[in-house]
Design a protein that fits this description.
Non-ribosomal Peptide Synthetase Peptidyl Carrier Protein, Chain A
Length: 103
């Protein structure tokens, strides 16, 4: 678990955008917060898992994938913006993410 500041927020956003630009073979300028991962970018759930692994290593986290899966069922992620926010919650709350009440 860690504190999310502006530097971390920008790093996560940049990493997510760069990842999807490369994996989906599209220009990074064509990715926006409202871009849907599956419909607009052609992404899939395996990409989401790869990103979790990237951030787990980058921020030295030990988070249970089952916990992320349970959180994702209650709080589905469709857009790039939602994915960035979810990753920031994971960095900030770690395994306690499951206890969050998101509206």
């Amino acid at each position: 678990m860690g504190i999310v500041n502006d530097t971390i927020r920008e790093d996560v956003k940049r990493t997510v955008y760069e990842f999807f630009a490369e994996e989906c073979e599209i220009d990074i300028e064509d990715i926006h917060e409202e871009s849907t991962i599956i419909e607009d970018l052609g992404g899939d759930s395996l990409m989401f898992l790869a990103l979790i692994e990237i951030f787990t290593k980058k921020y030295n986290q030990n988070i249970d994938l089952k916990t992320i899966g349970k959180f994702s069922v209650k709080n589905p992620v469709r857009t790039i913006g939602e994915l960035v926010e979810m990753q920031l919650l994971i960095i900030e709350h770690g395994n306690q993410i499951i206890d969050l009440q998101i509206n």
